[in-house]
Each structure stands twice: as C-alpha cells, then as structure tokens.
Design brief:
It contains twelve helices and eight strands. With 335 residues, it is mainly α. The strands form four sheets. It has a two-stranded antiparallel ribbon. A two-stranded antiparallel sheet has the order 2-3. α3 crosses α4. It is globular.
Length: 335
Amino acid sequence: MDKTKAVDMANRALKDTWSVGLKPDNVVLRLEFIQQKEGDAPLVNLIKPQGIALRFYLLALFDAQCRLPADATWTNSRPLRGPGSWSDFIATDGAYDTRTQTYMRDTKQGRTRSDLRLRQIQGALRTLEELGPERALVTVPQAENGGRRQYAGFTLMKETGRGSYQTADTYVVPRNVWSVKTVTIPATFFLNGWVQVLHPTEIATWLILRALSQWARNRHSESGVYLYGKAREEDFGMRRNPWEDACQRLLDFNLIRHAHAGDLNSDPTGFGNMIVNHMARWERDRYEPYRWQITDMSLKDDAMDVCRRELTLRQKIADRAAEAWARQKSEPPAK
C-alpha cells in the first residue's frame, strides 16, 4: 500500500467527501455495536483475519455522517466502482508477483487493483449480510428469480442489525446525547489513514478502550481504564492473546499509553511518556491488568508514516539480533 500510494489516494477521497459535506469532528457510533448483551456483539463477529467487512462498515458510517444530519435515514448515493465510488474509499495491497518483484501486476485475467477493491467490497457486503437474519448489518437485493446479488443496491442497517420485524431497521444517523449510548470516533481516524492500516483486532480493541474512556472520563484521565479477563470475554467477546497483542500494537503506534497523571494532549513520543510506558510492565502486580489511556494526538499523524517508522525500527532490531547471533556462532568456544 505504501509503494502504490493506495492509502494516500483513499485518504484524498475521504477528505474530499468530508470537506464538501457536513465536516463532522467525530463519527458517532452506537454502543450496541461494541458491547454484547445477548449473544455476540456485531464488532466481535467482524474480527476476521481476512476481508474488510469491519473497515467497510465504519467507512459507510463515516460517509453517512458526512452527508446526512442527525436523525436522517441512510440512502446509498455511490456506485461500487468508478470516480466517487466506494472503491475510492478502500486502500488495498495486492498479491506479490515473484517474477517482477512487484505487487499486484495488472494482467488480462482482471488482476487489477480496481478489480481487487471491487471483490473485497463485495466480500465485505456478503460478510455483513450473513451475520444472520436479525443481525445483518446490510441487506443486498437479489435479481428476480433468485439471481445474482445486486451489490450496488445494498442498504445499510443500524449498528444493532436488521432487527426481528418485517420492516428492516435501516441505519439512522444517531445524536451524540446522553439518552443515546454512543461512542465518538475522531474524523482524523478516517482522514489520516488509520482505518486503512490497523488490523481488525486492533480496531476492535481501540474501540473498546474508547468506549471505556468515554463511560468513565474522570477515571480515564486520572488512573486509566482496564478490563479483567471475565469482563473482557463476557462483555466484549475478546480473548486474552488477541487483546494483549492489539494493545501492544496500539501502544507502538502511540494511539494509547500506559496510564499516568500527565497531560493527555501531550506529545505521546515525549520522554516522560516513553519512560512511563517502559516502566509500566515492571511495576504492575502480577495479576493486575494494564491500565490504559487513549491519546488522540497521534490520530493527527499520517498512519502510513507511523507504520513505516515502526517497520523500519523493527527491521533494525531484527538486523542487530541477526548480527549478534552470527558473531556468537563464529566465535570459537570458550576453553
């Protein structure tokens, strides 16, 4: 995605949509999407190693709230491909071609990046529809006589799903008020490419931490938020290893930090924050969960630049480890 500038181009399309629309500072997400009550919440069912279902649904909410005021019912105004389409919102990489040592070489068999984006969007719509008759997050009409799905005519459902009535619960833009339990996502999450580069597990973990931080604002600013294992699995459907791995990646990207009394709007790469993050694992009691604070300052950074920096750092660490291992093997054994 870096070599093909896919994220940059998707960001440009999203910024154009935002700038000519209502320019929301935040995208409002209903809490039921994140926290499960009966059965699994929609969010946990969209944590998949492949596909873009979670990303596409969040992008659809972003598009709706750029176009429509609160309480307005969603309407589809975009084709699936072409200028101004849903495909313009999606950044993808492609299969690696060993002969040319490039990604996604165009061929006569339709292996263009445009075709790939279209197939991924269609796959995302299938995933969102196949969550179940009542939990489907989109509905896709079919041609007469049970023909092919008419993907371009999909309808977006509310965060709780289609519902159990004959009339589908079509998406309505929520108000960010106390009477409606919501979580806010800064528009910079979409505009600067974070929605494109984060893994679904990382997005889900970040949304859960955002929800916790907004439920308990004072606690979040003073001592951070956390989840014990039982609440993490029963309330949010997140297992330990994916949760801890995602927290570490979010920490690497400076989207969260180990809790301390410092200013939440301070530079997350500052020396004080780095010391706290380094010391947190040594000072934590064995059975205590980590306490986290959300740091939205880093959302203003270009996501690809941050990822490139982290990958470069990891490559240097790996190279040094390999050099140390090679030296150790080449040295004669001690007498």
